[in-house]
Amino acid sequence: MAKNPHTNPNSDGPHDQDFKTTEHSKSENLEKYRSDAEGHDLRTNQGIRISDNHNSLKAGERGPTLMEDFIFREKLNHFDNERIPERIVHARGAAAHGYFQPYQEAARFSKAGLFQDPGKKTPVFVRFSTVQGSRGSNDTVRDVRGFATKFYTDEGNWDLVGNDMPVFFIQDAIKFPDFVHAVKPEPHNEIPQGQSAHDTFWDFVSLMPESTHMVLWTMSDRAFPRHYRNMEGFGVHTFRLIDKQGKARFAKFHWKPLAGTCSLIWDEAQKLWGRDPDFNRRNMWDDIENGDFLEYELGVQIVEEEDEHKFDFDLLDPTKLIPEEQVPVIPIGKMVLNRNPDNYFAETEQVAYNPANVVPGIDFTNDPLLQGRLFSYLDTQMLRLGGPNFHEIPINQPVAPFHNNQRDSMHRQTINKGQASYEPNSIDGGWPRETPAGPENGGYESYYERVDANKVRARSASFGDHYSQATLFWNSQTDVEKEHIIAAYTFELSKVERPWIRERVIKEILPNIDLELARRVGENHGIEAPSSKTAPADELGTSSQADSPALSLMARLPGNIKYRKVAILAADGVDGDQVAAAKAKLEAEGAQGMVIAPSMAPVKAANGQTITPDAMLNGMPSVTLDSVIVAGGAESVKALSQSGQGLYYVQEAYKHLKAIAAIGEGKDLLSAAGIPAQEEGIFLGATVDDVFTPFTEAMGKHRVWARDAKANMMPA
Ligand code: HDE
């Protein structure tokens, strides 16, 4: 077809070329949609003032309600239609606004506008999610976490729709419906919620060896992060970055949390389902309200095109990661999440991410999982958000201006002026016009990739290795992490009713990861695991690396106590000076000391002061905090020692490997609870000063790992 004579020449974009976002552009863009009722009259959607919002219109006080009551009808009609379909996966989520700022390094790899100027802040909206459960499910279930970022750039929206694990369960998008059907609650009884511990999941994954690597990640403690701020993020697929010279390189995206990585303990995660089902979203919300923002570095692993085939796996295979020791992660920018949404539905629920939303300088590869995703997101959002105009919903609108000839359909908001809704046209001056491709112009140009192939329904032999990176991951775990993985497989399989599925996992999958893993899980199920690997050599594959330290959660522990929450246990008679000292010292280190008392009544301290508790023992149980200080004061400690809740508090903290400090008489609570005094991670002293440094050092390692085996003895 002939080129449009009205193509927009470089200098000719009267509005668009000068457009520049700032950190606040998205918030300013949302402002015109925000509604604040303060000081306003109650009205109908038609603007009529309402005089009585308590009584419907009736024929007589005890008579039938009248059809003509338009106020009642409008209210009920709207209410009846409040729900929209939840996401088929990733239904439960929480989101925050913030900004992204590139480092100098970023511009080397991509011409994308958001990477060019280290002084520039691009607004972002990030949604974290679980995958399996419904909107109302628990935060701390064993599951993958979604980590989806919408960058509102000068050049339009870029969505980096990633997860907190770097690989995926399947290699080809055509298997996604099968996988999701298998992992979701079972179809006959809709059980279990938020869990992979059931027959259909294990049936499917044990018949699909390609899922083994990812399943192993989900059996690790990565599957229940302590906080979204302690979670890594991954783009998973290999993407392409295109630089200003038009040179393309392969790239894997990483989010590295600046607060380090750490997770919950499985028993703790389970208890949180009941104690605080909103644990992760609450922590993020509260922290942002307190000014304790979430921070991540964006990093890229870059592979030159000529090195594409230099690896012992296929870069296009989404069940494989590139070990960081082979290709280092280069930091290219920082993201800060610093503002909570105003309205959950309008923003977090209605946001629509799509990996197909890219800007010039970012492009796709032929990863068959990615290719399928490029279709799926917009498709599912048509249903969920009610038709093709969901890009007009405020949270989804680009901040950059956009004009095209798409028209009409349900709930269209834009009032397109002019007579011509086609292109080329001569009636409306040819507008809107194309923009030439190339970095100096700004039009999107797909990577010039040569494709010359037969049409085949097949999988590349280079995707055949299903186990070597699972083994790499296993080998990279510390002993404690390995024990947790063994316990996870044991637990999950214990929920599988069909014996042949349990056997298949233990005899046909696990040995190919590691014989010891198979033997230990087998032992726990009374099933003898094979003494050698069972898969064919091509499925076992080879890894040029025996282990990759970066794959252990312990590789990036927080190292300090910033953002940590510490319980300070206190009852009447507590040593008030110790409580005050503990609080002040924790706060000075960026942590939060919470006074936890038997009830919400003010605590009468021995020094005559009263202390207002932050929470009570069963309102903020130990699973919701990171460690415990038992303040001294004979009366206080006696009261706590005579309370089941007081004893349970420290026992549970002990079981979950938390650092525990006891000041003065505080040690008596520990001995009443059966907690050994002379043990790593237990700190006794006469004053807060005596214990503070070693106590916080232990907290910096997140948990007292040396206690792991022993902690199982604690009945809490
Ligand atoms: Fe998604 N995924 N996905 N996914 N995904 C969706 O889109 C899909 C995959 C991810 O907070 C859906 O709007 C297919 C990998 C996140 O709103 C749907 C395949 C990764 C979110 C969909 C995958 C993801 C989704 C459901 C295999 C990590 C939540 C609702 C080919 C790189 C985004 C929606 C949010 C959501 C399809 C695999 C991440 C159905 C077909 C791999 C973080 O379109």
From TrEMBL:
Q: Which keywords fit this entry according to its UniProt record?
A: Heme, Hydrogen peroxide, Iron, Metal-binding, Oxidoreductase, Peroxidase
Q: Give the source's domain of life in one word.
A: Bacteria
Q: Which residues bind heme?
A: R87, R127, F176, R373, Y377, R384
Q: Where is this region: Disordered?
A: 1-61, 420-443, 527-546
Q: What's a Gene Ontology MF term here?
A: heme binding
Q: Name one Pfam family in it.
A: Catalase_C
Q: Does the keyword Iron apply?
A: yes
Task: Give the compositionally biased regions (Basic and acidic residues).
Answer: 13-43
The residues annotated as the active site are H90, N163
- Residue ranges, compositional bias (Polar residues): 1-11, 44-56
What is catalysed by this protein?
Answer: 2 H2O2 = O2 + 2 H2O
Classification via InterPro entries: Catalase (IPR018028), Catalase_clade2 (IPR024712), Catalase_clade2_helical (IPR043156), Catalase_core (IPR011614), Catalase_haem_BS (IPR002226), Catalase_immune_responsive (IPR010582), Catalase_large_C (IPR041399), Catalase_sf (IPR020835)
Query: Which cofactors is this protein said to need?
Result: heme
Tell me its EC number(s), please.
Answer: 1.11.1.6
Q: List the GO cellular component terms.
A: cytosol
Q: Name one GO biological process term.
A: hydrogen peroxide catabolic process
* Domain Catalase core stretches: 43-431
Relate the protein's function as given in its record: Decomposes hydrogen peroxide into water and oxygen; serves to protect cells from the toxic effects of hydrogen peroxide.
Family under the similarity heading:
Belongs to the catalase family. HPII subfamily.
What protein am I looking at? Catalase
